[in-house]
# Entry
Amino acid sequence: MNALVSGKIDLGPIDSYAFDLMKMSPGDPVHQLRVVAVTEPAPIPFLVAAPSTSRGTTDRLTAALLNSSADGEAKAILDRLQLKGFAVVDVASYEVLDRWDTAARDAGHACLD
# Structure
């Protein structure tokens, strides 16, 4: 965002969720920017665990996240983060990201691998 505000770059992408969170802070540079285009909706990134995390731990964390909207204390945190809750991952819904990547590469856009 600072590169956009400073004029170092003219255009840049940002995840809509990150953009919404930045807008919650009145002094954030994002307020000096404007949206010029949007993509079709896409899923937000996965929450992942280290390979060394036990299955029991990941199962408990998954259950806690899936039930967080029903827990008063967790619900307050979700509200501050502008989240309704969590859902089980539908891997097929992430295929749109591969399509976008392929289209960008085919169009000759630079990749920052």
About this structure: Residues 43-112 form one domain. The chain has five helices and no strands.
